[in-house]
Specification:
Blueprint (H helix, E strand, L loop, with lengths): L9 E5 L6 H11 L8 E5 L2 H11 L6 E4 L10 E4 L14 H19 L5 E3 L5 H4 L10 H8 L5 E5 L4 E4 L9 H4 L2 H18 L6 E5 L14 H13 L4 E6 L1 H6 L8 E4 L2 H12 L4 E5 L4 E5 L16 H18 L13
Parallel strand pairs: 1-2, 1-5, 2-4, 3-4, 5-12, 7-10, 8-9, 8-10
Antiparallel strand pairs: 6-7, 6-11, 11-12
Length: about 350
């Protein structure tokens, strides 16, 4: 039996929200042949759900091979780790059953990635309304769960053709941003971002712009004091060894297109970085988690129920997550490892 080898890396795919656009986009890509010479796909999903999607999309020619673990994966075909399913999955909407499946697919795939069985993990979009569960899964998203597994090591980064944006506070309410930001946290983000750009993106001396927390960078303390009391001194100290500048008022920085002059941007809260990112990159960018012993990427869009079953859903972001993830894998192979192994990080 022909099985997976090092010539073609194994990519693990989570099903994400099974009623959203993610499965449609993935199966559309796998319907073609361009991937077959490059990687071996392993999808974590119930067989019944894949049959449901094949029928819905009319993809009767899409073949798959059911396996128990990634080492059994075959090249040139979709490999399916058949997960248990409680209840029926509904398309174009979510449900508690859909959310439970999204969680199971993600956690099972992460376990295999931690064991070194997956070279790249691509997570499809989830609906946080059902993905989050206060008792069973008290994490607001993929990144928060990964941060739980690797405390102090992960960093959410949005990557596109024009922008690379690291987010210092991830998915938290705006009311908590100022209290969550500390000099130690921002320094950690900056240094981790620099290292990720150096290793995973092959940029020897990354130029980093740090955005301000307050409008007009505080206007000398009139609008806010964080810039004067600790952000400017921190950046000044780091700039002695690294190419770091700021804090820049976000409106002027993006309005004047200063992002063309840097390799990476540190946004201090979610919307500060992701609004300009999605305006400029649209569906062409992807999300990447720095600081993991395995590579994890994801599309930069949500579940898009309204596009399910229509030709309006673009595969561009998912394609970027796949192909750019493979480029990151190649760069890691070409450089000395900078991350601990999964075993040593427990």
């Amino acid at each position: 039996m022909e099985t997976a080898s090092d010539d073609k890396p194994i990519i693990g795919f989570t099903i994400g929200e099974p009623g959203g656009i993610g499965p449609q986009l993935l199966l559309t890509i796998l319907q073609g042949d361009t991937w077959k010479d490059e990687f071996i796909p392993v999808l974590y999903a119930p067989r019944r759900v894949i049959e449901q999607w094949r029928s819905f999309l009319g993809f009767s020619q899409l073949r798959y091979h059911v396996i128990r673990q990634p080492v059994e994966a075959r090249p040139d075909i979709l490999n399916l780790i058949d997960l248990p399913l409680a209840g029926e999955v509904r398309l174009k909407t979510t449900s508690p059953e859909n959310g439970a499946l999204a969680r199971l697919s993600f956690t099972r795939a992460v376990e295999d990635a931690q064991k070194g069985l997956l070279k790249l993990l691509v997570t499809l979009p989830v609906d946080k309304a059902t993905f989050y569960d206060a008792e069973r899964f008290p994490y607001r998203g993929h990144t928060e769960y990964l941060s739980h597994l690797y405390p102090g090591k992960t960093l959410m980064v949005m990557v596109g053709e024009r922008l690379r944006v690291a987010v210092a506070t991830e998915h938290i309410p705006l009311s908590r941003v100022a209290e969550t930001l500390t000099p130690e946290r921002v320094e950690q983000v900056i240094l981790q971002f620099i290292e990720a750009l150096r290793i995973d993106f092959a940029i020897p001396k990354p130029r980093i712009a740090v955005l301000a927390l307050n409008p007009h960078a505080g206007d000398g303390g009139i609008i806010g004091t964080e810039e004067e009391t600790w952000l400017k001194p921190l950046i000044a100290r780091l700039s002695q060894e690294h190419l770091v500048g700021g804090p820049y008022p976000a409106d002027g920085f993006f309005g004047a297109r200063h992002f063309y002059g840097v390799d990476g941007i540190v946004a201090l809260y979610h919307d500060q970085g992701l609004i300009p990112f999605k305006l400029l990159e649209e569906w062409e960018g992807y999300q990447y988690t720095a600081g993991l012993p395995f590579i994890r990427t994801a599309p930069d869009h949500g579940v898009a129920y309204d596009k399910v079953g229509t030709p309006d859903g673009s595969i561009s972001s998912l394609s970027a997550a796949i192909w750019e993830g493979l480029l990151i894998l190649q760069r890691r192979k070409n450089t000395a490892p900078y991350l601990p192994s999964a075993a040593s990080s427990e």
